[in-house]
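For the sake of transparency, this paper describes our internal protein records without simplification. Such a record has a labelled line for the sequence and another for the backbone structure tokens. Nothing more is needed to write down the fold, since each code stands for a local backbone conformation. For reference, a complete record is included directly beneath this paragraph.
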Amino acid sequence: MSTTELLEQVRALPARERQKFVLGVLALDEMPPAGDLGPVKPVRWPDVEARARRIFGEQTLPNLVLLEREEEAAGGV
């Protein structure tokens, strides 16, 4: 929609609706930009490796996906 088309549609509105539209546009101008919401707090990601060590100890678990792929490659479906 071009600016001219928008203005024509706004002019076609009743006076009260036109006033609401203009006030809404002015309110958008007063809002802070989306990027200026304040300082961004860094995200603390959980330590997945430490949790796995607490649960399983130092035991190494097999990669079942790789084992299945090796079996398919060998012909044992």
Observations:
- The chain has one domain: 3-36+44-73.
- Helices lie at 3-12, 15-30, 48-56, 64-73.
- Residues 26 and 75 are 70 Å apart (CA to CA).
- DSSP finds four helices and no strands in the chain.
